[in-house]
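Workshop exercise sheet. Pairs work together: one partner reads the sequence aloud, the other fills in the structure field after running the prediction. Swap roles for the next sheet.
Pair: D.N. / O.F.
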Amino acid sequence: MLAKKVINRISSLSFHSPWFIIIIFSVLGFIGIINHSMWRDELNPWLIVRDSESFGDLIANIRYEGHPVLWYFSLVFLRNIADNPLIMQIFHLTIAIFSVSIFCLYSPFNYLQKFLFTFGYFSFYEYLLISRNYAFSMLFVFAFCAVFSSRKITYIYLAVLLGLLANSSAYALFVSFSLSLTLLAEFCFDSEHRQQYFSQTQKYDLFLSVGIIIFSFLLSIYIIMPPVDSYLHGGLDDGWLIKLDIRHFLRSMGRLFGSYFLILPKQKWLDLSICAGIALFIIILTVIKLAKKPFSVFLYIVGNCIILAFTYLRFSGGPRHFGHFYLILIASLWLGSQYQESSFLINKFHIKEKLFTLVQKRYHIAFMLILYAHLFGGLYGFTRDLFIPFSASRETANYIQKTQLKQEFIVASRDANMAALSGYLNRKFYYPELKKMGSFTLFKQGRIPVEQAEILEQIYSLFKSEVATKRILLILNKELKLTHNNLKISPIKNFDRAWIDSERYYLYWVYEGNSQ
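Structure field:
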């Protein structure tokens, strides 16, 4: 009876209702995330939470990850409910659904734009199917925009959201900082808003709000600063780039272009220059579009400059990282609808009314091109994940369980690519990189990359030390190319159907004895 009522209610919805978009997104999202095969970056945090020996140990391990604590603390809560990483995927789906719901119900965009965004690359693929901390960025940015008008009475709601955003990821910290600076600029330069706020708020509100933001920023910065023995370097082995490099600057601008059109330019000067030029053109159009909303312009410029500076100086990143350029664009346009018009920038920079009116009419075309590019990217990524496993981890783990190999002594390498298997099988492996049992990987001193010859030598030592007396199950993420004079090696099965080429798995039996 209840199911029938739900079906009747859904069937009565108009195709032009935002709830129609939300329901379709939720159903497809559930199908997609249940089908998705998780990889190391998804399951390594789960393993850190699962296998850290104490709270202090957990915090110490998180600091090697380069991410703040919010996602890990969420996983602690989830693991107390169910010791199965599937609950992490359901939680991630919930974050995506809430994000899209806020966007569809409260954003100022028209129905078509809401539809295109919802099924775009980041919301329908990157921040939906891949269970990581970056989905929080979309949720908290949209929640901030939805409750933005509350600042006239209290800043506490916004401060809490900024604090949560800052502790989601390093890039979310940049966005949170940009939004905070925007609030500060408005408070300092908009006397009308300031008077209205002081006439309606409690005395402690401003100090408490500022305290929440400062504490959140300090906590995030402390956690993401790598320990001295870390060698991950935030993705850039050479540390900070402090010299002028025009090609590298164009590559960084290419990340901004990629966030809008999902195409990364190649290394050729012509490709880099064209894409950087288009990105700059979109920036100029957006600034003129928002020219009568100075604080939105401020957010757009400051947010892009901060992320672009980090992209140039430290880490170019992947789509999940430079997708925050896209979120800055959406947030700037969204908040622009909530500010009163001002002619300050128009007069200051002598922007002609004719040019402003022309851009207002033509900007719609550029924005729609961006949304359609994201729609095609989202549909492609989502569909591809349905038919081609992102990682071969789940298929490999299912085979190991089905053939009752889970209880065997397992040597697995490369350790960083085995987190997904460890998570699905809920057990530890012997890692040659660590010379001991382990599950998650921390890139720090004590972990030594090994070649296949060293892996076989360690297996031989394991037999000699009688740690493994009969046979060893060897799992590699690259096909074994060597033999060992004192070991018999027999292939079992290969699992090479995966989108990520470093997460294809090769299983072997290894016995002590002459290979001849």
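Discussion prompt: Residues 353-387 form the longest helix (35 residues). What would you look at next?
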